[in-house]
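Lab manual, section 2.4: Encoding a predicted structure.

Procedure: take the sequence of the chain (607 residues), apply the prediction step described in section 2.3, and record the output as structure tokens. A sample record is shown.
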Amino acid sequence: MRAPILALKDVRLADGPLMLFDGVDLALDARVRACLVGRNGAGKSTLLRILAGQIEPDGGERNLTTGTRIAFVPQEPEIVGATLLDYATAGGAQDYQAQATLTDFGLDPEKPAVGLSGGEIRRAALARAFAEEADVILLDEPTNHLDILAIETLEEELAASKAAALIVSHDRAFLERVTKRCFWLEYRQVKRLDEGFAGFEDWAEKITAQEAEEARRLDRFIQREAHWMARGVTARRARNEGRKRRLESLRQDRRDRLKDTRSELNMGLASSGVSGKRVVEAKGVCKAFGDRVLLKNFSTRILRGDRVAVVGPNGAGKTTLVKVLLGEIPADAGEVKLGTNLQISYIDQARTKLAPEMTLRDVLLPKGGDQILVRGEPRHIVSYAKDFLFSEAQLRQPVRSLSGGERNRLLLAKALANPANVLVLDEPTNDLDMDTLDLLEDLLADYEGTLILVSHDRDFIDRLATSTIGLDGKGRAIETPGGWQDFISQNPGFFARLPVAAFAPAKSSAPRPVTPAPPPKPVAAGKLTYKDQRRLEELDALIAGAPAKIAALEATLADPGLYRRDPTTFQRLTKSLEFVRAQLASGEEEWLGLEERREALETGRPG
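Recorded output:
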């Protein structure tokens, strides 16, 4: 049996008076993909950082096989460098490999590493991790901010990788597809299941039932011991002292168990009353921003009680569609009619209502006081906060101190306090643990109002949606009864596997199209605009650097044994070579046009 390449033995770590880990054992074998499961606050991210060597435990051992390389993608990656290629190669990845993985994730290697969206940041960090060809990849919530197509790309990358992987994620469908082993962080220790995530929940239920029975037996034993002690006699004094010490030890063990028992979320959800039967009716709706068409001639009818999911690539217009349907953004053409007696509650993916400097109390009680109206009934703010696992002390903390899961719970607490008959959830599953997701699913399943759900979580959609609207990012929108799997089976090929960045509102990763020059006309002498001059400098750098990249890729692909040894890498490099060649050709055309314009402006001749 081969030794694990990365292992923890009897690891202990305390956060002040709170013990996070107490005797954690965890071993990662070569090429095994595993998940790390546990509730929010259990310490999953901290455990990943210990495995990555970023945190030293208070006790225990971390063993790493000599020469083992680790790539770690944290929950909130920081992208630094002039371009994405600079960032992706900063950890030691080869230039051609970084280009290939960035292209796989739909990113332009030459894109500046500033002003990126959440999805672009996540894809860049993942591309760097795979480009480094590490022996171990540690991923903390890697599907956050990714659309479904990007998640499928990640699944393919993991399947093709030779690295061992440990993944923290709430995405059930993703974990079921990629994992072969499960680690469960519970009560400060880690339990192991040598199966993929598909078998986790049944196994966890059995473990929980066994532990509950053990706790009941311990309670009964403590009661018997206490009764014996009460009836003990002086002649047995020495024996009494031994049993007394044992009894106190048992009681301490029981106190520790009770202290570690998780608090239960107590979320509630109520409709504010019956809306009209018709909630939204849209006919022939069109919407575009400049030349970018998001919707062309889309029609739908949403009735009271419907649960409508909206899916599609990042930047395809999912949030825009929802806002058009709710009347927040006007359609360019077509008609949208809203029903009567609508009370809408909206939880947005950007969490824009949570200002970092606000305290939790400020968020829940913006007008002050100690009472919050929860679905028409007054509740003390401390009691209501505890329903969402927030302590009284946390109410005084600023929002910036909260984790992603805690911020999402805070938004849920704020939104669910208000009765609503239309509930809009825009990416509600980001950062939530599976227990919270289960409770949220149960609440939504029993909700009597209308639900509009924008999500990348395929399992969440399949469990809840009565119909699914898919947007392809090119103006097409189709609605199909059922959830994600129903949509895909009824609309095969609807989502073309184009680079993900092609759907983003930022610059596309495809080569820049050459804009036809306008008819010649007399112009006054002058110079290029700042924007054109900046673009000319970018093109100079592109044209100067591209030949070396092409030569390096061609030299690597010239190896006659590469395809036989690693066909996946061969295909990646071929795609990257095609991309760089097309980028160079397009860049030369654009450079020539700008140079002609510059010369014409400087001489005053028609250009």
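Check your result against the sample. The radius of gyration is 29 Å.
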